[in-house]
Structure formats: structure tokens, C-alpha cells
Amino acid sequence: MNRRSPLLRWLGIAPSLLAASAGALAMPGGFEWAPGNANALPLQALAVERIPGRMPPWPSSALLHDEAQPPTYWVAAGLGVPRHGIADHPLAAAWRVEATPACARLVSVPMADVKAPGVRVVQHNELLPMTCASGFADDCTSTDGLLRINITFAGKQRVRTVRGGFFGSEGPIQQALYTGTRMLAITDRPSGRSVQLTERLRDTPAYTAPQTDIRYLPGLRRVLLLGVVLEGGVPGAHCVALPEAAAATAR
């Protein structure tokens, strides 16, 4: 799985990139957001308290949770796996997810906080199907039935023949190239309100597959997008407050 940016998956592109006959390819720009209609959910910037020299919370991070009330969530980058003898990365970092009236922020905490008794790593498929938001077009629902993630495409496709393998050393393969717009919609099913992101493709086989960069926090009624949305070509951290969460925090 190759990436042009922290969120870009090159599905089906590797053979042609390595093929001598592949030639130059246009690249997708990644997902972008623009304010929708009055009923659309807003996308908020996620403030991240950073420690200089430490890892950022994307492109690869773990979500952790405790069973206390109210629930607490953490995000950790570079977290080790003790049962497999894997130590924390030397630049590992951790943050507590703190709800705010607008949405949330990530507050830097010691790594010891995410290793305290009662804190555990949340497996992605506990909240969302493992393949959710990984395909070119997709449609999935959270395990609690309250969140829907849908990816659609409007445009055209053409197929070309390229040689596979390193530098075109293998036989010909068929490759699809897309021109048009992909739309990623994250919908709060109880209210029917959603936030929509768009990605413009121009004659390219590459596309963005955020998958585990989308973090659903049902206990806080928040969705974190870690490196999913580009701003000026740079992946950033964003947050969506689902309706009940926004109303409850404001009271």
C-alpha cells in the first residue's frame, strides 16, 4: 500500500508507475470541503497541541478508550505493542480528546496516560467495518447503526493496457483511469444531516482511501478526520460534531 500523502492510497497504480511504458500520470488532489446547505454538518478544524520533534496524530495512530463515565478517548502515534515485544517509537506522542463547544481538540498527555489501567486500544472494526471508506466507491454503517459513510463517483472511466511488474518486466495488464468527482459523505443517521467532501480526479488510477483515518467516537458523538482533508495541498486534522453532541455541549 503506497501513499503519495498521509491519506493517499495508490490502489492499482503501482504496476503502471513501475512500467517503462506507463508515462506521466495525473494525481488526485485529495478530499476538500466547502460549506454546504443550511442543514449540512460543518467541518471544524481540530486543534492539536503538538510537542516539537514528536510524531503527529496522522497518518497512522491508535484510538484508545476507557470505560469510565463520561467516556474518555485518546489518540496515540507510535504506540508499541507490548504483547509482541514492540516498544513505543522514540518519537511517540499521545493526546486526550477533549470535547469543545465547536467540536474537539487534542490535548498532549504523557504516554503513561494511555497505558493506565482501564485504558485499551479500540480495534477499528468495533466501531466501523474494517474496509469502510477503503474502496473507490463505498457504503458502510457504524456498528451502532448511527453513522453512515458513503463514497460515490460521478464522471467517466477509460481503460488502458500497461505492462506490469518492475519497469514493465511482466505481461500486459488492464488499468482503469478516472476523470470526475468522488464525494465522501459522513451522515448522522438519526438527524439525516451530513458533511460532504469532494475529490477531483483527472485521468488517474489513484484515489484517496481514508479508511482508518476516520475515527468515530460514539461516546462523545464526534468524528475525527486525521489527515483526510487537504488544505492548500497539506493534510490537516478536522472534526465533525454530530447534532446531539453539539446541542448537549452548548447547554
Report on the structure:
The chain is 5% helix and 42% strand. It contains two helices and 17 strands. The chain has helices at residues 14-18, 243-250, and strands spanning 8-9, 32-33, 44-45, 47-48, 62-65, 73-77, 93-99, 104-109, 120-121, 138-141, 147-163, 172-188, 193-204, 207-208, 214-217, 222-231, 234-241. The strands form four sheets. Strands 4-8-7-6-5-9 form a six-stranded mixed β-sheet, with no helix packed on it. The N and C termini lie far apart (45 Å). The relative contact order is 0.24. The model is unreliable at 1-25 and 245-251 (pLDDT under 50).
Question: TL;DR?
Answer:
This protein has 251 residues and is mostly beta strands. The protein is 5% helix and 42% strand.
**Tally of helical segments:** 2
Residues in β-strands, percent: 35-45%
Q: Report the radius of gyration as a whole number of Å.
A: 19 Å
Name the quaternary structure. Answer: single chain
Question: Structural class given helices, strands, pairing?
Answer: mainly beta
Please outline the helices and strands.
Blueprint: E1 8-9, H1 14-18, E2 32-33, E3 44-45, E4 47-48, E5 62-65, E6 73-77, E7 93-99, E8 104-109, E9 120-121, E10 138-141, E11 147-163, E12 172-188, E13 193-204, E14 207-208, E15 214-217, E16 222-231, E17 234-241, H2 243-250
